[in-house]
Amino acid sequence: MHCVQYLALLLAGLLALSHSYPLEEQAGRDDSFNATFERLQFNAYDAPSRKVAPSNIDFAFRLYHLIASQSSGKNIFFSPISISTALAMLSLGAGGDSRTQILKSLGFNLTELPLPIIHEGFRFTQRVLSLPIGEVNTYVGNALVLSQDLEPLPEFTRDTKGSYNTELLRTDFRDVEGTTQLINHYVKEKTHGMITNFVSGGLSPDIKMVLLNYIYFQGLWVKPFPFSGVVVRDFHVDENTVVKVPMMLQDQREHWYIHDKRVPCSVLRMDYRGEAVAFFILPREGKMKEVEQVLSPGMLERWNRLLQHRYFYRTVELYLPKFSISNSYALDQILPDLGFQDLFSSRANFSGITKQEKLKLSKSLHKATLEVNEIGTKAAATTRSFFSLYSAHYYNRVLMFNRPFFIVIFSTSAQTIIFLGKVFNPTAP
Questions:
Q1: What is 227-321+379-423's CATH number, 3.40.190.10, 3.40.50.460, 2.30.39.10, 3.60.20.10?
Q2: Cβ(301)–Cβ(60) under 8 Å?
């Protein structure tokens, strides 16, 4: 029996199993969707992407809170939709209880949402995210790196290609250096250079399959910051640590923002020139933990609805750090605590991938990178009486992100969280 030596989910993700993964020859772009039809339909209430969105957003916050509980005092940044997509794809090759466990741990109720609808939802989500709308570009995709001497089951090949538009790469895993270069080059190219040297070690000759899932996001602000407005300012990491950061300034421009009295924070919405927005959530001094505890799908929805009301579109003197952060996570040490108990054990059933050998998952890595600058972002979840819950005094016109804050990059077309994180120290690598 071969056992898997490496599994990774790339900035999306990279998964490696001990025998092969599917894909025939090169899978080109799936043109079964008519692009014009998609543009008209992706905002429909019953669009497939909308059906899987609530579970994906809930998974995003569950994963965030688990990472936060293990990463006190550190930057956090990851792509929840990337991880969800990779795991949903993996479920196509899982059998019996393993498949059920994966989907339930992702938050899906199989009695309410049939399996075909789930996979169609992910397919539609990827297509919607990939549509070039305005000046927001999101590249989402999947690839299978297969051992040259193994063949996957035809149905797994068909389903993976049909639902996830998976591309095939063939390699000889005994050539560890060559395979490493193949994967690193592919990831670097697909993430436009944002992720380099993704695999720097850990590949072994008895690996038979690697699943790559990637996402790259680049968005331009509707209201860019002037290059001349960048000044060096103090950023208060904690009570004892102050670092210098380049701080971007927009002086006296209108923005969507609120000072929340129910939750001790300010929330800024920055729109991209396309179907995406960024939420920057700034806790009041000493209130980071309190705000972090209430981060949830419901809270994000509440802020999103409120920030569409003209009352909260006001002039503000805005200071936002210019920064770049990158994070890696060993998901094989995290996901079991979210219900994926069998995924990395000998109990896992991946008989839907191949009958030649029993496959076993070993490791899972996720890497994500974020860059925020003057022109935009690169990155490789209502109440009737709301007027009484927020301060809108005209004398409070300065919004300065000079202490740790949260960030959510949200697709308005797919209604899902693309990236989620906490900027604890913008000068940390």
A1: 2.30.39.10
A2: no
